[in-house]
């Protein structure tokens, strides 16, 4: 908004002082005329001037009329106070759930009524038509400026509310996925602040990017989201409801994402951690497709949960093979892996490896020399199986 009415209409500098004084004399009836017009406009919108916003708008009308008639008489008067009133009215419009266009419509109607009133009360000795045109230019520019101040207030409040919502959602999600389950009272208070009914079950999605609000709106179904560390974390309530996960997958089409399992609300951290680790492995190219479904890759996640641990496991468990030439080491590792998978069925292992059963038997004799009693211990066989799966999966 301009600082003065003179900035809006420079022609005011040429008006005779009598024009401004005449307008000041019309102040009281002008108040009543414009207030009645605004009341009618508010009623048409299903509102009244009796509530908090109504009283504020009444004050705004009086302030706007007073500021205008005074500024016509003194065009260099500062309009900052009037601007502040309408900026606050715009903020209140947003808080009370109205559209900013509704306030703009009231202001436009009020401006027209002021002009109609001034024309109706012009006397033969009053302002010349040229002077009235200058006043009209000032008036309608002034109304536009007030509407602009209200719109700025509306947008400021909208941005502040968005920041507040983002903060409350982030606090709620952080509580849900923290290492220690939150106290029930704290969780309910955070959920109430976020206006999010606590569901019995949730699933957490981790998605590359930072557009948390957009994703939560697109997925719908009460999903809430925030950015934690390097990804958007989306909490999806009641994920097992028909169609809910399908809609989430559709919303994430083309995005690098991972879905944690459906869990009870109190175990949200597990779903969060699984989806986060799955996303990290998807980034590394270990897991395929988007979105990655964590439950379909639990063994890979288990082996790779702690970076370097699976490598250490493979090095330690497969140490007996370390001294062999690469080709022999690979052949024996593949044979042992097949033997463990097929529970010792030599013919089936040979078919899997496209080799002769006698070759498999020969290699197994060699492996028994290297691993000894480990091949007869169920626990050691399990560890060997995991180590071989990890090592052979990497092509080593």
TrEMBL record:
Q: Origin, by domain of life?
A: Bacteria
Domain PucR-like N-terminal, chain residue ranges per copy: 14-177
| Coiled-coil residue windows | none
Q: Which residues cross the membrane?
A: none
Where is each PucR C-terminal helix-turn-helix domain found? 332-389
What's the protein name? PucR C-terminal helix-turn-helix domain-containing protein
Name the species this protein comes from.
Micromonospora chaiyaphumensis
């Amino acid at each position: 908004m301009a600082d003065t009415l003179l900035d809006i209409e420079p022609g005011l500098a040429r008006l005779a002082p009598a024009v401004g004084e005449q307008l000041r004399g019309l102040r009281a009836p002008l108040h009543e005329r414009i207030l009645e017009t605004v009341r009618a406009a508010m009623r048409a919108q299903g509102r009244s001037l009796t509530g908090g916003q109504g009283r504020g708008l009444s004050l705004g009308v009086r302030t706007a009329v007073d500021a205008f008639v005074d500024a016509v008489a003194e065009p260099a008067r500062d309009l900052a106070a009037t601007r502040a009133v309408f900026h606050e009215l715009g903020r209140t419009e947003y808080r009370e759930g109205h559209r900013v266009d509704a306030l703009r419509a009231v202001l436009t109607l009020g401006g027209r009524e002021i002009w109609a009133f001034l024309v109706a009360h012009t006397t033969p000795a009053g302002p010349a038509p040229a002077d009235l045109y200058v006043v009209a230019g000032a008036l309608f520019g002034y109304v536009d400026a007030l509407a602009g101040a209200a719109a700025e207030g509306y947008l400021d409040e909208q941005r502040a509310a968005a920041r507040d919502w983002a903060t409350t959602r982030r606090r709620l999600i952080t509580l849900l996925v923290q290492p220690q389950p939150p106290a029930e009272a704290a969780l309910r208070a955070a959920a109430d602040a976020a206006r999010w009914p606590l569901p019995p079950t949730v699933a957490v999605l981790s998605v590359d990017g930072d557009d948390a609000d957009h994703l939560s709106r697109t997925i719908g179904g009460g999903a809430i989201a925030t950015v934690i560390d390097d990804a958007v974390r989306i909490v999806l309530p009641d994920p097992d409801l028909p169609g809910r996960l399908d809609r989430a997958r559709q919303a994430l089409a083309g995005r690098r994402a991972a879905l944690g399992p459906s869990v009870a609300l109190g175990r949200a951290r597990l779903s969060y951690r699984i989806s986060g680790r799955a996303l990290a492995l998807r980034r590394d190219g270990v897991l395929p497709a988007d979105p990655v479904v964590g439950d379909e890759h639990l063994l890979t996640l288990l082996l790779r949960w702690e970076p370097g641990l699976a490598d250490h496991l493979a090095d330690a468990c497969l140490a007996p093979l370390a001294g062999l030439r690469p080709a022999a080491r690979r052949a024996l590792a593949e044979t042992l892996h097949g033997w463990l998978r097929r529970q010792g069925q030599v013919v089936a292992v040979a078919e899997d490896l496209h080799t002769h059963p006698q070759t498999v038997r020969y290699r197994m004799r060699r492996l028994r020399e290297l691993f000894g009693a480990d091949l007869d211990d169920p626990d050691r066989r399990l560890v060997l199986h995991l180590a071989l799966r990890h090592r052979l999966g990497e092509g080593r």
